[in-house]
Each structure stands twice: as C-alpha cells, then as structure tokens.
Automatic annotation (TrEMBL):
Keywords: Oxidoreductase. It is an enzyme of class 1 (oxidoreductase). The keyword Cell division does not apply. This is 3-oxoacyl-[acyl-carrier protein] reductase. Residues 1-30 are annotated as: Disordered. SUPFAM superfamilies: NAD(P)-binding Rossmann-fold domains. Pfam families: adh_short_C2 (PF13561). It comes from the Bacteria. The keyword Thylakoid does not apply. One of its GO terms (biological process) is monocarboxylic acid metabolic process. Gene3D superfamilies: NAD(P)-binding Rossmann-like Domain. It comes from Actinomadura viridis.
Length: 280
C-alpha cells in the first residue's frame, strides 16, 4: 500500500510548525487532515465511532480498532463512508501491547504510519471506594491508561521523525471532578491528564501535541445492547449541566477533531472538558 498522497515530511522543527499551522489568511478548513492516517482505538464504541466520522470528514484515512464489537465495527465503517472518507476496523486488545506494536508495524510497512492517534478505548466498572482493591484498580488502569499511553508512546516515535503528530486521549470529567461509585475509573482518567501534560513537554518541539478530551455525560449509544446509566441518573445529571442536556457523541468528536487538526498546533498538554458546563 502506498502512502496517502499529500502527507508531508518537514525537515526541521520550525518547518514542522510552519507545515502544521494554517498560513496567514488560510482557513483551518475541515479537510486539513487529507493524506494523513488517523488511528482510533475504541472505534467500535459510541464516541470512537463519532471520532472516526469527524476525522474522515476532515480528510484522514481512518484505521479504527474494535475489541469484541464486530457489529459495531460495521457501524463505524458506515459512519466513515457517510462522512465521505475511507477506513478499516481491525481487532485490537489495547491491554496487549504486542498486538498494538504489531498493528503499528503493519501501518509502517504499508507506509501509512499514524500521524493522528485518538485513544477512545476505555470503560468503567461500578466499584465503590470501600469495595475497591488491587484487582479493580489494576483493571481500570490497564484498560484506560496503560494501553493508551504505551500505544501513544510507540506511535509518537514515528510522529517525531515526521515532525507532525496529534495525540488525543479520551479522558473523562470523572478524572477532574471525581465520580462517586467509580473511584478507580476516575483515578485512571486523571492519570491520563497528567501523562498528557508530561508527554507534551517531551514532544512539543517536534510538532507533536498531546491532549486529553474529557467528556461529561454523553447520551446513550442507540446501538448499544444496554445503557450504562439509568434514565433517572441521566435526568439527575442533566439538571446540573448548564447546557441543560447530555452531550452527543458528535459534540465530543468535534472537540477531538479540532485538537487533531493542524490548526491546533499551539494547544498541547491540555485537558479539554466537554461537559456542557456541568457543576456537581
Ligand atoms: N459515554 C460517556 O458518557 C463517557 C463519558 C466520559 C468519558 N467516556 C470515555 O469515552 C471513551 C469511549 O466511551 P464510549 O461511551 O464510547 O463507550 P463504548 O461505546 O462502550 O466504547 C468503548 C470502546 O472501547 C473498546 N474496548 C473495550 N475494551 C477494550 C480492550 N480491552 N481493548 C480494546 N478496545 C476495548 C470497545 O470495543 P468493543 O465494543 O469492540 O468491544 C469500544 O470500542 C471511554 O474511554 C470512556 O471512558 C465516556
């Protein structure tokens, strides 16, 4: 497979910045990821699917990953096609670093290394603080943090060489404000923000940015077999959200799309809350 046309390799850090940022008077148009490969973990999920559609609409070739969800992977491919893009959805267990490195090696061999990485794979379990133990903490860590940061580090090496990269980790408002009943999950998401703020320092001068998008409560996936939160819980949260409703996955994806764009070249190490102005 040949490298998508239009991908540039700038020679110096300064050139990288110039290549990444829109020129004077140039609109930061939605298609500014044309010719770049975007790797999205958790692409079969609700938010991951919307992120894939957003990046496809911006012109990226999207390589999504799924864990179990073959049916949901088909929905992701439909969403990418509807956005006018191209993509594939491959199996990946993010807690198995060998699988992740094998996927990166394949993309490198095919000359389509990811210049954009969005880590949307993740999830929570309801384990209250008094019942939490080493097992629960380890599960939350491996799924939400260890897999994402190891993949980001491995992908970043290629980005450094190309002097362009966008890494977005999907955190959660829980990582900023805490979440009763899910302390391990909240702690894991908080760790992502600390990792991004740290890695941003190491990668910034090479044109690679690292940010976290931290959604608040998102509407349930209409395609999910079961909702994570009850209607009662959704109502209670909505009352404390300035916007007066839950987020759509597309609204989360729009924030991700901006941070992945060349136009976001001077935003790094940040955690962007997409929570509708929640106060609780
Ligand atoms: N929804 C919300 O309200 C909300 C709020 C804040 C933050 N978030 C965060 O947003 C991210 C996406 O959540 P979502 O709502 O889209 O959830 P979702 O629909 O359940 O999607 C989760 C995704 O993670 C994948 N996954 C699970 N275990 C995996 C593993 N071991 N290896 C690789 N992939 C794995 C799933 O794959 P399969 O489906 O193929 O098994 C799926 O693609 C998560 O990190 C979540 O913590 C969600």
């Amino acid at each position: 497979m040949t490298r998508p046309s239009g991908t540039t390799e700038a020679g110096t850090t300064g050139a990288a910045a110039a290549a990444a940022a829109p020129g004077p008077g140039e609109a930061a148009g939605p298609a500014r990821l044309a010719g770049r490969t975007a790797l999205v973990t958790g692409a079969s999920g609700h938010i991951g699917r919307a992120v894939c559609a957003e990046l496809a609409a911006r012109g990226a070739h999207v390589v999504g990953t799924r864990h179990g969800g073959e049916k949901r992977a088909a929905l992701m491919l439909d969403a990418v096609a509807a956005a006018g893009g191209t993509g594939e959805c491959v199996p990946l267990d993010v807690t198995d670093h060998d699988q992740a490195t094998a996927l990166l090696a394949r993309l490198r061999r095919e000359k389509t290394p990811p210049e954009v990485l969005v880590c949307a794979a993740g999830g929570t379990e309801r384990v209250p603080a008094l019942r939490a133990g080493p097992g629960t903490g380890r599960r939350a860590w491996e799924l939400n943090v260890a897999g994402a940061t190891a993949l980001a580090a491995a992908a970043a090496k290629g980005m450094l060489r190309r002097r362009f990269g966008r890494i977005v980790l999907i955190g959660s408002r829980a990582g900023v404000a805490g979440l009763p009943g899910q302390p391990d999950y909240a702690a894991a998401k908080a760790a992502l923000s600390a990792w991004a703020a740290s890695a941003a320092w190491e990668l910034g001068r090479f044109g690679v940015t690292v940010n976290v998008v931290a959604p608040g409560a998102v509407e349930a996936d209409p395609h999910a077999e079961e909702a994570v939160y009850t209607a009662e819980e959704d109502r209670a949260v909505t009352e404390r959200v300035a916007v007066g409703r839950l987020a759509t996955a597309a609204e989360v994806a729009a924030a991700v799309g901006f941070l992945c764009s060349p136009a976001a070249s001077y935003v790094t190490g940040q955690t962007l809350l997409v929570d509708g102005g929640a106060r609780f």
